[in-house]
Amino acid sequence: MAQSVSFAWRVAWVLLLGLLASPLRAQECPVPARGQSLTSSLSLLPGDDPTITLAQARDFARAGKFRPLGAATPSFGFVSGALWVSFDLPASDSECKSLLVIEQSRLDRVDVHVFAGDVERQTLSLGDADVFAARALPHRYLNASIDRPAGRELRVFLRVQSTSSVQLPIWLHTEASLLRLTHQEQAGQGLYFGILLALLLYNFAVMVSIREASYFYYVVYVASFGMLMLSFGGYGFEFLWPRSPGWQNAALPLSIAAVLGSSVAFARSFLDLDRTAPRVARLARLSIPLAGLMGLLALWPGLLLPMTMALNAAMVVFSLLVTVGAVLSAMRGFRPAYYFLLAWGLLITGGVALPLSSFGLLPRTLVTEYGLQFGSAAEMLLLSFSLAYRITLLRNERIRVEREARENLEQRVQERTQALSETAERLSLANQRLAETSLRDGLTGVFNRRYLDQSLPLRFADCVRRGQPIALLMIDIDHFKAINDDHGHATGDDCLREVARRLAGLARSGEEFVARYGGEEFAIVMPGADREQAMALAERLRREIGDKPVVTEDTTLRVTISLGVTCEERPGEESPLHLVRRADRALYEAKRLGRDQVCVA
């Protein structure tokens, strides 16, 4: 019985304390259900002088130096100094608290000074420079609680300084209205990060099973993108590293650098740029360490802001680089490039808006704020579905073949054995023919680039051993693209065949040979020939081609050639590669000087 009385007294005391405490708790100032925007009442002090003090800012305000910002959400881009912004809060009917919210998660420091007349009532500090727990409400948006006395108008001054782009969507909220406003947004972000995690785990499993470089780069790309979105949206600071404001500031440039480097590496591997677009591949190889260097430099004291600006600009440049590589790969008939272009187009459509908004070139809207998430999720899903579809096709084909093999194995063993024997015989004959023709250019009949790459080092080594000179002629048909454009590719092919026939006809017998280097370019290797002999042959070739028109089925053309000549009098001092480069430079010099001539290097 005594225990029951004691318990009843404890319950009564708790209820009594609750009743006593409720009047002491400050009431929240009423706002509309989705909050009250203060954007239209914001005023800005022009300039970003970081040395302006609060007293000076107030003097400027009294002198009318602050300028209204208008109705649009202010976006200032990257600011090297500090901005002063002010606004008025009208008098409240009763004493209450307002939740001041800056719907932005990437500002380093915002100092809030609240005045009633000439008396400063509150000084607050917001931003990533403080630990997350310093916020009035645990939310990714910057927020602070402002005490509003009954019947007194307040003037609020904000000093904003940040190494990230500065945007100031300022609102008044209650705790309920802020949570109501961002509830669906947080659900969408949860779905987005869930998709990223699923894609990361799925592609990691594929990478482990098939061990292909493209999947490794893709896994790094997805992980980097997830880190970028966590740091950019403030969710990482809210849930993963709330006690590390230093890492919150460094995470954004580092994750941007990781996304840039991994996206270019993935594109280079997936699109096979070394083969389909060599020049773009060379730029890609240079851009990957450049992105890493910018990310590391962002950690150096004083370089966070300039490196963050540089990385935001690099997002546009790197996107163009990858796009050009994908377009060139598609133009060269590389089918996976079409799927890549579609996926990449979805990403850059949403993603390019982000750096443009960061620099203040676009206003802050739903599209600029979340376009990157929309585009990246669509891109990654499309690539993953393409991969899954490819794997399904391969699996179905394997199952079909295995089923047919089981059903017909016994009766088809003899047929298969005979077929394999016949196939082996045909393959042997085909290999013999292939060995004879694989070193010849199918269009012109002269040797091809493969034969040139194999034979030139051997002829060079022979000349080194015998102490003989070796010469190389690089030949290019002038204005060949115009021939194709004006007369068609069939006429262009006829022209290539005729030029090759004449070149082969004038080349010396023995070890000297003509090879098609690529496109409309040919090469003649002249073991044992000195500079004078090489120049003499080059002039004969130039006259032979230029003086006799090329007669095709449809037309008669005057064709000229440009020649680059080089000779190694004492082979061994340089490599065959240097010989090719010198002849190539001489060829381009001949073209630069007007074509239809011979230049020597």
Strand content: 15-25%
Structure annotation, total helices: 17
Radius of gyration: 37 Å
Total separate domains: 3
Mean pLDDT: 84
Low-confidence stretches: 1-25
What class would the helix/strand composition place it in? alpha+beta
Q: What is the helical fraction, as a range of percent?
A: 55-70%
Oligomeric state of shown chains: single chain
N-to-C span: 113 Å
The number of E-state strands comes to: 20
Tell me about the largest β-sheet: 6 strands, antiparallel
Widest sheet: strand ordering: 4-3-6-11-8-9
General description of the model:
The structure is a single chain. The protein has three domains: 28-173, Immunoglobulin-like, CATH 2.60.40; 185-391; 449-600, 2-Layer Sandwich (Alpha-Beta Plaits), CATH 3.30.70.270. It is built from 17 helices and 20 strands. The protein has helices at 2-24, 54-62, 175-210, 213-233, 235-239, 245-270, 273-276, 278-297, 304-331, 336-351, 353-358, 366-437, 449-466, 480-487, 489-506, 531-547, 576-592, and strands at residues 27-28, 36-37, 43-45, 67-68, 75-77, 83-89, 96-102, 109-116, 119-126, 142-148, 154-161, 166-167, 170-173, 470-477, 513-518, 521-527, 550-551, 556-557, 561-568, 598-600. Residues 1-25 have low confidence and may be disordered.
Architecture blueprint of SSEs:
Blueprint: H1 2-24, E1 27-28, E2 36-37, E3 43-45, H2 54-62, E4 67-68, E5 75-77, E6 83-89, E7 96-102, E8 109-116, E9 119-126, E10 142-148, E11 154-161, E12 166-167, E13 170-173, H3 175-210, H4 213-233, H5 235-239, H6 245-270, H7 273-276, H8 278-297, H9 304-331, H10 336-351, H11 353-358, H12 366-437, H13 449-466, E14 470-477, H14 480-487, H15 489-506, E15 513-518, E16 521-527, H16 531-547, E17 550-551, E18 556-557, E19 561-568, H17 576-592, E20 598-600
Parallel strand pairs: 1-7, 19-20
Antiparallel strand pairs: 2-13, 3-4, 3-6, 5-12, 6-11, 7-10, 7-13, 8-9, 8-11, 14-16, 14-19, 15-16, 17-18
Helix pairs in contact: 3-4, 3-12, 4-6, 6-8, 6-9, 8-9, 9-10, 10-12, 14-15, 15-16
